[in-house]
Each structure stands twice: as structure tokens, then as C-alpha cells.
Amino acid sequence: MKKLVAEFIGTLWLVLGGCGSAVLAAAYPELGIGFVGVAIAFGLTVLTMVYAIGHISGCHLNPAVSIGLWAGGRFELKDLGPYIVAQVLGGIAGAGILYLIASGKAGFDMGGFAANGYGEHSPGGYGMLAALVSEVVMTFMFLLIILGATHSKAPAGFAGLAIGLGLTLIHLISIPVTNTSVNPARSTSQALFVGDWALDQLWLFWLAPIAGAILAGLVYKYMSPEKE
């Protein structure tokens, strides 16, 4: 239960910090943080949580990460379901807090609410195939970074930096394409509040990250398996 509570809190922080930066701080003309600021914010949420809860739950904060670690032989199948539920609920709680804050401004308009999308709902107008490829590849690289940084042969104590900076880089590349998911819990939390098109397109932001994560887990297990 302590692990699940940690995953809940960590995913809440990821959504509140990352999506919150997009909803609250990115839209100001000249003073806003823009794409770069949002990318850094997502990286910082993971970086801070790795050191806060990594020793408790492993700091997955992401169903695709949990599934990728399982595929790579680093996580037990029996724990997958509870972790994913805790992550999704934490993401929804984070989005709920963000909604309460954002709606406190006069003239509040839900807009995209940092939801993930493709086609007309992509920040750069990218189509479904581009979004699918982007999410699969970005999640694949994210899991390679995680599996490598947390390997028993990796330098101890630096995993948080590699993972946080890796997520920042992923956002710098792919925010214009899909608003960057690589995390089904993060996508679900925002889609539930936006509804409509965001729920219609949510399938892609479960399918693509999970596919990329499983592929990365299998590839890394082949390249550098951990000793039993």
C-alpha cells in the first residue's frame, strides 16, 4: 500500500507540475514559459519524485513505464494492475487540482487543458500516423533511458538526472506533435476533463506508449540483462 500511495502522489505531481505549467504558465505573451518551459517542468516533476519516492515505489508514475519494466524483467506481473490503477487515479487527482486552480480565474476557458491529440488537436497539426510514430519512438527511448540509468552497472545516484533530462528532451521534440504523452495516465487525466475529442483520441495515447515500452523492455533485456 505504501508503494501505491507513493505512485499516486508522484503521478499527481507529474500532472499538476507538467500540465499545470502548460495550462497556467505557458500562455502569457512574452512572459510565458512556452514549450521549453513546459518541457523542463515535466522533466523536473520526474527528477524530484525519483529522489522523493524512488526508494519506496521505484517512481514509475506511468503505466507504460511499469509495463516496460515488466517486459524488461525488472517488475513483477502481479504488481502491474495495482500500480496502473494508482497512477491513473493520481493523474486524475492532479488534473482535478489543476482544474480547481485554473477555473478560479475570471473568464476561464477549458480549451485543450494540455490534453494530447492529433490532427486538428495537435499543436502543430500533425496527423494520426505522425502522432503514433512519435509516441512509440519517444516512449521506446524513454524506457531505454530508464532501464539503463537504473541498471545495476550504472553509476549509483544519477538515475534521476538521466531520467528527468530524458523526459525533458522528449518533450522538446514532441510537444508540437501531440503535446507529448508517453504516459497513458497523464493522457487519461486531461482527457476526462476535456471530454469530446480528447476521449475519442485517447486510445492512441494508451496503445502507442505501451507498444514502445514493451519493445524497449525486450530490446534492453536482450542487450544487457540483469543478473537474477
From TrEMBL:
**Site annotation (Selectivity filter): which residues?**
42, 171, 180, 186
Q: Where is the motif NPA 2 annotated in this sequence?
A: 183-185
Entry keyword annotation includes Nuclease: no
Reaction catalysed? Answer: H2O(in) = H2O(out)
An example of a GO molecular function for this protein is: water channel activity
Keywords linked to the UniProt accession: Cell inner membrane, Cell membrane, Membrane, Repeat, Transmembrane, Transmembrane helix, Transport
Q: Which InterPro entries does the protein's record reference? A: Aquaporin-like, Aquaporin_transptr, Aquaporin_Z, MIP, MIP_CS
Q: What is its main location?
A: membrane
Subcellular location, record wording: Cell membrane
Topological relation to the membrane, as annotated: Multi-pass membrane protein
Q: Which residues cross the membrane?
A: 35-59, 80-102, 126-149, 156-177, 203-223
Question: Which Pfam family is one of this chain's hits?
Answer: MIP
Gene3D superfamilies for the chain: Glycerol uptake facilitator protein
Q: Where is this motif: NPA 1?
A: 62-64
Please indicate which superkingdom the organism of origin belongs to: Bacteria
Q: What SUPFAM superfamilies does the database record attribute to this sequence?
A: Aquaporin-like
Cellular component aspect of the GO annotation: plasma membrane
Site (Involved in tetramerization or stability of the tetramer): give the residues.
19
Read off the domain note.
Answer: Aquaporins contain two tandem repeats each containing three membrane-spanning domains and a pore-forming loop with the signature motif Asn-Pro-Ala (NPA).
> Subunit info?
Homotetramer.
Family, as annotated: Belongs to the MIP/aquaporin (TC 1.A.8) family.
What functional role does this protein have? Channel that permits osmotically driven movement of water in both directions. It is involved in the osmoregulation and in the maintenance of cell turgor during volume expansion in rapidly growing cells. It mediates rapid entry or exit of water in response to abrupt changes in osmolarity.
Q: What is this protein called?
A: Aquaporin Z
Organism of this sequence = Labilibaculum manganireducens
Its taxonomic path starts at: Bacteria, Pseudomonadati, Bacteroidota, Bacteroidia, Marinilabiliales
